[in-house]
């Protein structure tokens, strides 16, 4: 292995700190989703930019959730979750589900009870209902792996993105 001029050898590189990690991932554009679940006292949900396709057969996806989040108590025991792909017109909805202490399911959020009792948001580009398959410890988060059991890809529009700490849209 040869060293790149101007960069220290990998062995001499400092350990990655949370600030470095965050700075690098601010440069990574990610699609924006909202994950929902039904709780005993009502629906919960949060904005996720960690949504990943895992497998087509069986259809599996994953997302991360911080164990200190207000939604974790419900998601930690939920059998099913909803996953919603947001459109560029839904920046306010993404911000609502990202904000701590917000009334996420109050007006103007439009939603209905979907399959398996999962809250389904109206007006999204696409949504899925998934059976939770596993919750894997990952630092201060859990990586949730879930199998798709239903959904609707028929929404219209372009996806909402998250980049450099803000919601944004694709450019042509």
CATH architecture: Roll
Beta-sheet strand percentage? 35-45%
Q: Overall mean pLDDT score? A: 92
Residues in helices, as a percent range: 10-25%
Kindly report how far apart the N and C termini lie.
39 Å
Helix and strand element order: HEEEEEHEHEEEEEE
Tally of distinct domains: 1
Radius of gyration: 18 Å
Give the structural class: mainly beta
- Count of β-strands: 12
Poorly predicted parts: none
Output the strand order for the largest sheet.
3-2-6-9-10-5-4
How would a crystallographer describe the biggest sheet? Answer: 7 strands, antiparallel
Shape: globular
CATH class call: Mainly Beta
| CATH topology assignment | Pnp Oxidase, Chain A
The number of helices is: 3
Pfam family, one: Flavin_Reduct
InterPro entries: Flavin_Rdtase-like_dom, NADH-dep_flavin_reductase, Split_barrel_FMN-bd
EC number: 1.-.-.-
GO molecular function, one term: oxidoreductase activity
